[in-house]
Design brief:
Strand content: 15-25%
Strand order of the largest sheet: 1-2
Structural class: mainly beta
Pfam families: DUF3438 (PF11920)
Radius of gyration: 18 Å
Largest sheet: 2 strands, antiparallel
Shape: flat
Number of strands: 4
Mean pLDDT: 69
Low-confidence stretches: 51-67
Order of helices and strands: EEEE
Number of helices: 0
Helix content: under 10%
């Protein structure tokens, strides 16, 4: 799917696969695309604005197990 901002001409490319939810799944939710410089900690979470100044530096690393 290709979307274009009518004011700026900016193009947004979105890869979508539309499928019905199976009988044992909860109904699927609609997609909402919001332009901006924010991101959420996880999908569906509240967005937080990015700070121009970082006050702390994260030095720890995370690892994921392959279950």
């Amino acid at each position: 799917l290709q979307l274009q901002n009518a004011k700026t001409g900016e193009i947004i490319l979105v890869d979508i696969a539309a499928t019905e939810a199976s009988a044992d799944q909860t109904p699927l939710e609609p997609v909402k695309i919001v332009e901006g410089e924010t991101s959420s900690a996880r999908y569906g979470g509240a967005a937080t604005a990015r700070s121009a100044k970082a006050t702390t530096k994260r030095t720890d690393s995370t690892s994921r197990s392959n279950d």
